[in-house]
Automatic annotation (TrEMBL):
<protein>
    <recommendedName>
        <fullName>U-box domain-containing protein</fullName>
    </recommendedName>
</protein>
<feature type="region of interest" description="Disordered">
    <location>
        <begin position="31"/>
        <end position="62"/>
    </location>
</feature>
<dbReference type="InterPro" id="IPR011989">
    <property type="entry name" value="ARM-like"/>
</dbReference>
<dbReference type="Pfam" id="PF25598">
    <property type="entry name" value="ARM_PUB"/>
</dbReference>
<dbReference type="InterPro" id="IPR058678">
    <property type="entry name" value="ARM_PUB"/>
</dbReference>
<dbReference type="InterPro" id="IPR016024">
    <property type="entry name" value="ARM-type_fold"/>
</dbReference>
<feature type="domain" description="U-box">
    <location>
        <begin position="135"/>
        <end position="292"/>
    </location>
</feature>
<feature type="compositionally biased region" description="Low complexity">
    <location>
        <begin position="45"/>
        <end position="62"/>
    </location>
</feature>
Length: 304
């Protein structure tokens, strides 16, 4: 029995549940039931936008590092500087000289610049004087034969504007423009083909141009093909050129390359059934009479 004056011994601290040092630390953590409750420290929370953006940027950076974008592997295209503009000419003669210098160049960009310069100057106000230099006209013919769609658009506009002057028509014949139009008309765009045929019809008003068209073996097949493809003014121009071929305005004894009149007459009659101008129908009706007479002459000559 304990004495009354004997002091009670203080209670010893509770023995840890584990003697292991590792688990002893676990029991003394904030989650331990034997340790006093402590308010856990709260980490500062970021706003949803910042956290999402940071996580997105982190994932994107990792993705780009792990899987590089295929666009980054393609070689960068080198953009060439635009060609320098041609100097401004004060007179038409200077314009012809500048265009002549560039249209004879090997560079396609120089040729295009020359054509654009001529189109700006010549097409809005077709000149009657001075005449186009022969070398410049030969350059236009060469560009027309180049089988370039963009170039042909410019050339046909310029050629038609130049051929409005009678002096330039003879220059065009000497440069081979009539043969070039006959040989390329079937492959041109519709608008370019119409302009080319209009220029050829003007060239045929000269004796040299008409003779050149009559001598060419491809004139009739090309005009028949273009006549079936075009409508309106283009069809009218093709009929006019066929009328030049089968007409009697040529020089006596000149060599004429023509197709059988019956086949051409059927093609003309078929073309007149479609879209055609009133003047084109009148020309077509006159051409049919000419073809009928031409066929009769052939029959009489063969019979004799």
């Amino acid at each position: 029995m304990m004495k009354a004056n004997q002091k009670a011994k203080p209670h010893a601290p509770p023995r840890p549940l584990f003697s292991c040092g590792f688990f002893r630390r676990c029991t003394q953590s904030v989650l331990s039931p034997t340790s006093p409750h402590q308010k856990p420290l709260r980490k500062p929370t970021a706003t949803p936008s910042s956290s999402s953006s940071s996580s997105t940027s982190t994932s994107q950076s990792f993705t780009q590092w792990r899987f590089p974008n295929h666009l980054d592997q393609t070689p960068s295209t080198v953009t060439l500087p635009p060609p320098a503009p041609l100097p401004i000419a004060t007179t038409l003669q200077e314009t012809f000289q500048i265009a002549e210098l560039h249209i004879t160049s090997v560079s396609e960009s120089d040729k295009l610049l020359a054509l654009q310069l001529l189109e700006r100057v010549v097409v809005p106000d077709p000149p009657s004087d001075p005449t186009c230099p022969p070398s410049l006209m030969r350059g236009l013919v060469s560009c027309l034969r180049g089988n370039n769609v963009v170039t042909a658009r410019h050339v046909t506009k310029i050629l038609l504007a130049l051929c409005l002057a009678e002096g330039n028509r003879r220059v065009a014949v000497e440069a081979g423009a009539a043969r070039a139009v006959v040989e390329t008309a079937a492959g041109l765009e519709i608008s370019a083909a119409e302009r080319a045929l209009a220029a050829l019809e003007l060239i045929c008003t000269t004796a040299e141009g008409a003779a050149e068209v009559r001598r060419h073996a491809m004139t009739v097949p090309a005009m028949v093909a273009v006549m079936a493809r075009l409508a309106g003014r283009g069809r009218e121009n093709a009929i006019s050129i066929l009328a030049v071929v089968y007409g009697r305005g040529g020089v006596s004894g000149e060599e004429i390359a023509v197709a059988p009149a019956e086949e051409v007459a059927r093609a003309v009659a078929l073309a007149l059934e479609g879209e055609c101008t009133a003047r084109g129908r009148r020309k077509g009706a006159h051409l049919l009479k000419t073809l009928e007479e031409y066929g009769r002459l052939d029959l009489n000559q063969n019979g004799s």
